[in-house]
Specification:
Length: about 210
């Protein structure tokens, strides 16, 4: 992408980002129209491609933006005050819930990223997700009290299993063409945490 984008006023940058998030959240990668994005952002299509060289570049930037935004909003001082692994997971889920209530297109875009991995951009994003997971999981959980875990339990695998369950749950909703209910997802997540806590923790910490 063109670094000139970052020389725009912050408000204009956000307008373009919000327009792109809205369109990509409503349509899959193939059918998301850059004409619509430019129109919603109040700029020409040529200017949009001046800042983002092509559609995939814009899509990839949105993923990076979403990931950085969520990380900055979730990983605050109170995050590091928690040393229980499952409390950290619940804290992160609740913070995402609050964020998505205020920024619904972030949630919808995240769903598209997960579910549309068969597109060219989706494969690129999937590689980014895998790379990010490997690099960041340990950093996110470095302050955890691991003495609560049963011997031989791999906490990284538990994180990935919960993520896969969440992906599968959203995929099932998508197949049913159902509206995503954040309260329902959060309740399901709480139940999954309870199950995995019994499996992973020593009895005295359950």
């Amino acid at each position: 992408m063109n670094e000139k984008f970052f020389e725009l006023p912050k408000e204009k940058q956000q307008t373009i980002i919000n327009a792109a998030l809205e369109v990509f959240s409503k349509y899959d990668y193939k059918h998301a129209s850059t004409d619509d994005i430019a129109a919603k952002a109040g700029i020409s299509k040529g200017l949009l491609f001046y800042y983002f060289h092509n559609k995939q570049s814009l899509y990839t930037y949105l993923f990076d933006y979403t990931l950085e935004f969520l990380t900055n909003e979730i990983v605050k001082d109170e995050y590091y005050e928690l040393n229980d692994y499952f409390e950290v997971l619940k804290y992160a889920a609740n913070m995402k819930y609050r964020i998505f209530q205020k920024n619904p297109y972030l949630l919808r875009f995240s769903e598209k990223v997960i579910m549309k991995s068969d597109t060219e951009a989706g494969r690129d994003i999937r590689d980014k997700i895998n790379q990010y997971s490997q690099e960041q999981y340990k950093g996110f959980f470095e302050h955890i009290d691991y003495s609560k875990f049963r011997e031989g339990v791999d906490y990284l695998k538990i994180s990935k299993m919960i993520l896969w369950m969440a992906e599968g749950y959203m995929y099932e909703l998508q197949l049913q063409d159902a509206v995503v209910n954040l309260d329902e997802i959060l309740n399901e997540f709480e139940e999954w945490v309870k199950v995995f806590k019994k499996i992973a923790y020593k009895e005295e910490f359950q």
